[in-house]
């Protein structure tokens, strides 16, 4: 009987010790996002300490993540996502019992090597560069419907640049200036630079 109670006591002690350890652990949370503010889904977030990877999680569909179960100490956080450059945040202090909120300042920049880049040039009907033209960018779906992506404006040289992650897509560019409009559709696929020129039926001298 004494041995039986002794075993129970040891089990209870181990359980209490485990609860105590868990209570002492901490963590970090935050949001991984792109330059435009949108969250990056499925990004890997790794806590590293003394050159060793301690724990890794993935962000959800909105770019939100939480790394729990970290012991008190100072960590480096490594962020990775397809189509983006890796990010590193050093000197992140974790305290037992607390989950540190890093907010939305974890921004990853697009990897230029994995981007589709569309360079467009807009001209007056005389053939000179048209600066200040409004360019609406749309995604054309397979059923013909469209989704608005962004709005750009041409530079004084009549140029604009649009970037997106690689992948097959049909893009529609609508250029507008003083009532004149021109449309160009561009099929893109792999990471590369795509170029096109568009002339609007408007004269430089028109007011």
Structural account:
- By secondary structure, the chain is mostly beta strands.
- The protein has two domains: 26-107, Carboxypeptidase-like, regulatory domain (Immunoglobulin-like); 112-199, Immunoglobulin-like (Sandwich).
- It has one helix at residues 2-24, and strands at residues 26-33, 44-49, 52-58, 64-70, 73-80, 87-94, 99-101, 106-107, 115-123, 134-140, 146-153, 159-165, 169-177, 180-188, 193-199.
- The longest helix has 23 residues, at 2-24.
- The chain is elongated, with a radius of gyration of 27 Å.
Essential attributes:
single chain, 207 residues, mainly beta, Immunoglobulin-like, 2 domains, four-stranded mixed sheet, four-stranded antiparallel sheet, 1 helix, elongated
């Amino acid at each position: 009987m004494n041995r039986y109670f002794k075993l129970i006591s040891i089990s209870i002690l181990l359980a209490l010790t485990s609860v105590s350890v868990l209570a002492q652990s901490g963590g970090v949370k935050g949001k991984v996002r792109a330059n435009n503010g949108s969250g990056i889904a499925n990004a890997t977030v790794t806590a590293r300490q003394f050159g060793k990877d301690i724990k890794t999680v993935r962000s959800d569909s909105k770019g939100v993540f939480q790394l729990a179960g970290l012991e008190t100490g100072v960590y480096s956080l490594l962020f990775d996502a397809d189509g983006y450059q890796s990010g590193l945040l050093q000197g992140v202090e974790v305290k037992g019992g607390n989950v540190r909120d890093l907010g939305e300042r974890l921004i990853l920049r697009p990897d230029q090597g994995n981007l589709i880049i569309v360079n467009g040039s807009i001209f007056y009907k005389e053939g000179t560069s048209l600066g200040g033209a409004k360019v609406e960018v749309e995604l054309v779906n397979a059923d013909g419907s469209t989704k608005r992506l962004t709005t750009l404006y041409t530079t004084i040289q009549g140029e604009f640049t649009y970037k997106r992650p690689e992948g097959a897509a049909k893009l529609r560019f609508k250029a507008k200036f003083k009532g004149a409009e021109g449309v160009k559709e561009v099929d893109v696929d792999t990471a590369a630079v795509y170029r096109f020129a568009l002339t609007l039926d408007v004269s430089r001298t028109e007011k």
